[in-house]
Design brief:
The longest helix is centred in the N-terminal third of the chain and has 8 residues, at 10-17. This protein has one helix at residues 10-17; strands at 27-29, 36-38, 48-49, 52-53. The protein has a two-stranded antiparallel ribbon with strand order 1-2. By secondary structure, it is of the alpha+beta class. It is built from one helix and four strands; from the N terminus they run αββββ. The relative contact order is 0.13.
Length: 59
C-alpha cells in the first residue's frame, strides 16, 4: 500500500490551497441606467439585459 514517505510542509500545502480563495465579483455597468451589475444578470434597477427589456417595470 502506498504511503507518503515524509509529511508535507505547511508552505507546500498552502501553496496548493492558494487558488481556493474567494475572488471579488466582476461588475459591469448597465447600458440603460449605469448601475453596476454582475455580468450575465438582468439589471435589478431597470430590468434590461444586453440592451433589451426583460422585466416589465411598474411606474
Amino acid at each position: 500500500m502506498a504511503v507518503p514517505k515524509r509529511r508535507q510542509s505547511k508552505s507546500r500545502s498552502r501553496k496548493r490551497c492558494s487558488h481556493n480563495a474567494v475572488k471579488p465579483m466582476k461588475l459591469q455597468y448597465c447600458t440603460q441606467c449605469g448601475t453596476a451589475v454582475p455580468s450575465h444578470v438582468v439589471c435589478p434597477n431597470c430590468g434590461h439585459y444586453q440592451g433589451r427589456p426583460m422585466v416589465e417595470q411598474e411606474d
